[in-house]
Write a structure and sequence with these properties.
single chain; about 400 residues; alpha+beta; Helix Hairpins; 3 domains; five-stranded antiparallel beta sheet; five-stranded mixed beta sheet
Length: about 400
């Protein structure tokens, strides 16, 4: 006659013919429970009462593991949430499994923590049992909160910087316009001779420097508006051929000054629905870069074509010095200027591509750049099919 089983742990009493094999199984079971890094709680799937817990469960709930036995599973959570978890446990019993990735538990000392619960129902000694694994994720949650706080702080700092640049640029532009205007009057000798040729030369230098500084300030203002989301697109149907030709005429003086040729090639007669001012700004940014970085005798090419999906691609290509491979991945970041390059000599603050990237993205498109040192650069603006039609 078999002897009774210890109901708390399931151990067979000494003398049972099956005591040896079952004891080995129980020891394995206990070893698994106690070496697990997760808290493990076993509960009767019908009643929800806890029948067993490992030592890690005691650590997690700030008590001795034996104190958990006899409690209802829902009592492991804050009182205001227990009805919800009773429902979850019933669903787990019916479905045979449960995964709760972010759950709040309440320790016996009243403190709360975040855990992840994975549970399955299995039959043990003829009783349907819900085996739950509780993984402490409080450190991960704390880290997530830290990252969120850091991201928000960084965003606030960036917004503050952008507002400062915008406000300061406005303040600088007012006196700068006066400087440019007065130097232009002196240079042109509108009110009479300046008395010495050097003064006219100095006035020319002042005027050129003022215009250059005004370009930088305008770039900063444009970038600030884009960053703060204050750029509103006013879409209209634009003849792409006219747009590209007009852009070429705008830089005609620079092309002649640097002894460069510029070719425009347009496939078909595409019409692009876009903001005309933004399109001109993007193209002039790309053309300005191409002209600045292409040596005399070089070539700038502007092409437009429709891709296989019906989208429009506008490409500005030059035969300039190219971009080093290590710079390509961050070339569209703001204030991206080579350390060895003088900003005054190149005429920019590294904002042209950053502004262009954000403007083309506002149109639902994207920018891509292909370049090799010594072999020139190709910048591609891609616009979605929904913005393209044909005359």
């Amino acid at each position: 006659m078999a002897l009774p089983v210890n109901e708390a742990r399931g151990f067979l009493l000494k003398g049972d013919d099956r005591a040896g094999p079952v004891r080995v199984a129980e020891e394995k079971h206990r070893a698994i429970l106690e070496t697990s890094g997760d808290a493990i709680v076993l509960a009767n799937a019908e009643t929800g009462l806890i029948v067993e817990a490992n030592d890690r469960a005691g650590v997690l709930f700030a008590c001795d593991a034996s104190e958990l036995v006899g409690m209802h599973q829902s009592e492991l959570h804050p009182s205001e949430q227990r009805d919800r978890y009773r429902w979850d446990f019933r669903n787990a019993r019916n479905a045979g499994r449960m995964l709760l990735p972010d759950v709040t538990i309440q320790r016996r000392d009243g403190t709360v923590s975040s855990v992840e619960i994975t549970a399955r129902t299995i039959e043990i000694d003829g009783v349907l049992t819900l085996v739950g694994f509780y993984r402490d994720i409080s450190h991960r949650k704390a880290r997530e909160y830290e990252l969120i706080a850091a991201r928000e702080a960084a965003r606030a700092a960036s917004d503050s910087k952008t507002r400062f640049l915008a406000n300061m640029s406005h303040e600088l532009r007012t006196p700068l316009n006066a400087i440019i205007g007065m130097s232009e009057l002196i240079r042109s000798e509108l009110w009479g001779a300046v008395g010495h040729p050097k003064y006219a030369e100095y006035a020319t230098d002042i005027n050129d420097s003022g215009l250059h500084l005004l370009d930088l300030i305008n770039d900063i203002l444009d970038f600030s508006r884009v960053e703060m989301g204050k750029v509103t697109l006013h879409d209209e149907d634009i003849d792409v051929t006219d747009l590209l030709e007009q852009s070429r005429r705008t830089i005609a003086g620079l092309l002649e000054e640097r002894d460069l040729t510029c070719v425009v090639r347009v496939s078909g007669s595409p019409i692009l629905t876009a903001d005309r001012r933004a399109m001109r700004q993007m193209l002039l940014n790309l053309l300005s870069n191409a002209v600045k970085h292409t040596p005399p005798g070089g070539r700038v090419t502007i092409t437009s074509d429709v891709d296989g999906q019906g989208g429009l691609a506008i490409v500005v290509e030059d035969t300039g010095r190219g971009i080093p491979a290590e710079r390509l991945e961050w070339i569209t970041e703001p204030f991206n200027v080579d350390e060895e390059i003088s900003v005054t000599r190149q005429g920019g603050a590294g904002l042209g591509l950053a502004i262009t990237k954000r403007l083309v993205e506002r149109h639902g498109g994207q920018i891509s750049i292909d370049s090799s040192e010594g072999f020139g650069t190709s910048v591609r603006l891609s616009f979605p099919p929904g913005r393209v039609s044909f005359s």
